[in-house]
């Protein structure tokens, strides 16, 4: 259990808080004396004082000199609700992240309130304001369009100012008020591109999402691998899209198809394509299949997230891992640690190292391939 790992003063504080929230102690009721509390909990006076100090900071109790400690009139009670905002409730890795969050929160008596921003700043703002009204005990958020000038940073700071811990998933800002759980996206982009290079590819394209920080960092890894191997970065091989798959799937699919066709029409067409995520990788494979290209004989593909979809036998796409469920668990644990301590312990950053999972979508290029194609 999460609680067993907590210091004794936090366990005492949590127990007294639970009694207050249950209504067993009413406003202006006097708590047992410090000596009585020491006997009840079997701990030192120092431990009791630390617990009472946190309860006082949280506004649950107040002290009268010479008289003791009393329950406050205006108590901010726990709601046992944690807000979770995702850019999509239908995203193919969303269910794994949610399962990780829920596995931790449920066994500690908390429930999740879901919000779907659809990768839209204004919609996200509405949800954040609603969560502030509902007085959630913590917030986990995957920010919308995080690679752009992010307009809701002040709203997130309001949560922290109200002693509500915030964990940012899959992005990071230059702001030490929040905690962060991310994957090293740049390293992931590097691993994918470098794998192509190790298999003899030099004409390597990339399709990535603009205004999205994880995607931009994956692109940086792509550039890094090419430069370290003295392979030119051709603008014709770089394809960026802005249409969100969460807003209009049909337009998104048409945009990806247009980008793939543009790549095929380049004078020296690519032999490999690194895709921002598995959803794009699968779509690229379907488009190439329809155009009678063989994967990986004609064009190799690598995705990102190592989702369940790319593990299917008839798809079997090489992909870079995303922690998914583990990331959700770590985010939830950070929230509970902050709540239990009564103090916002911000600027904690957990970054997972990605791995490349090889499957059947990358072909080894013969050393004479480029000479043969010049003939």
Main attributes of the structure:
about 375 residues, Arc Repressor Mutant, subunit A, 3 domains, 6-stranded parallel β-sheet, 6-stranded mixed β-sheet, about 40% helix, about 15% strand, elongated, DNA-binding transcription factor activity, Peripla_BP_I
Explain what you see.
Keywords: DNA-binding, Repressor, Transcription, Transcription regulation. GO terms for molecular function: DNA-binding transcription factor activity; transcription cis-regulatory region binding. InterPro entries: AraR_ligand_bind_dom, LacI/GalR-like_sensor, Peripla_BP_I, Tscrpt_reg_HTH_GntR, WH-like_DNA-bd_sf, WH_DNA-bd_sf. With 375 residues, this protein is α/β, with parallel strands linked by helices. It folds into three domains: 3-71, Orthogonal Bundle (Arc Repressor Mutant, subunit A), CATH 1.10.10.10; 81-182 and 324-352, Response regulator (Rossmann fold); 185-323 and 357-374, Rossmann fold (3-Layer(aba) Sandwich). It has twelve helices and 14 strands. The strands form three sheets. The protein has a six-stranded parallel β-sheet, with helices on both faces. β3, α4 (94-107) and β4 form a beta-alpha-beta unit. The longest helix has 17 residues, at 325-341. The N and C termini lie far apart (67 Å).
